[in-house]
Amino acid sequence: MVTGLGIITFRLHDCRSLKSKRKVVKSIISRLCNNFNVSVAEVGANDIYQRAEIGFALVGNNRKVINSKIDKIFNLADELGLAEIIDSEMEIINL
Q1: What pLDDT digit, counting tens, does each position of 5-59 carry?
Q2: CA-to-CA distance for 4 and 64, rounded, in angstroms?
Q3: Burial of 16 by CB count in 10 Å (0-12 exposed, 13-18 middle, 19+ buried)?
Q4: Rounded CA separation 79/65 (Å)
Q5: CA 95 remoteness from chain centre
Q6: Cα distance between residue 2 and residue 83, in whole Å
């Protein structure tokens, strides 16, 4: 079993309230879930208006496939244009 984990940190330039932040974060999460069938959630910076941390997890049986999907997730998150990616982390665990 191969597990892929990732965290993407975004800067949200136009957000002035938590309500506007939640709208952007919810949009990013739903797009990632719909396109890749991964588990996605906001995992940090919950009370900071202009910053969001989104984590995701994948499970599979092939390390190359998991690595490829993680790269595609990072690319889609960047291409959405809803927020600027300021940091990203990934880890692949073989069990």
Answers
A1: 999 999 988 888 888 888 888 999 999 999 988 999 999 888 888 899 999 999 9
A2: 11
A3: exposed
A4: 21
A5: 23
A6: 30
Q: How many CA atoms lie within 13 A of 63 on its CB side?
A: 5
Q: Who's near 12: CB < 8 A, 6+ residues apart?
A: 20, 21, 24, 49, 50, 51, 52, 83
Instruction: Decide: helix, strand or coil at residue 24.
Output: helix
Best CA proximity match to 52, nearest among 7, 3, 93:
7
Report how far residue 40's alpha carbon sits from residue 7's, in angstroms, rounded to the nearest whole number: 10
Token couple for 73: 């997730």
Residue 24 backbone dihedrals phi, psi, to 5 degrees: -70, -45
| 84 SS3 class | strand
